Amino acid sequence: MEEFTKWMVDRHIRTGSSLIEMTEKEAIGYLMEYVNILSKEFNKMNLPKKKSVVDEGMCEACNGVSAQWLIESLGRDGETYLVCGNCSPPLSNRALSRKQFKNLLQNGHSTSEFLLHSDFYDEDGNALQPCGG
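The chain above was modelled as a monomer; its predicted structure follows.
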């Protein structure tokens, strides 16, 4: 936010406009202009693209077969799992094998996510509270 404030002040000094008399529409316009500038700078960075099994459409839990299911954790935006038919039930039932659990962590998930929470798995990936059949 501090960077944006400096940018706004600098822009107003250069243009001679008043920060105090700025309308809501002008403020949004300036914000969008700043976001556009940041976006262009970010795109120039040429960051390496991380390739993951998700990019390949593979199961995130076993890394071995094509994913068939996209499981979303209820009430948790962004917690989605791309899994095959064999890995879907253990994920939903908090009964993943150690290997499946570790693969999910290696594929960008974390133990702060509900389905992988540390209440359900120990640090080695052993299921502590499996449910279902």
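Residues 24-44 form the longest helix (21 residues).
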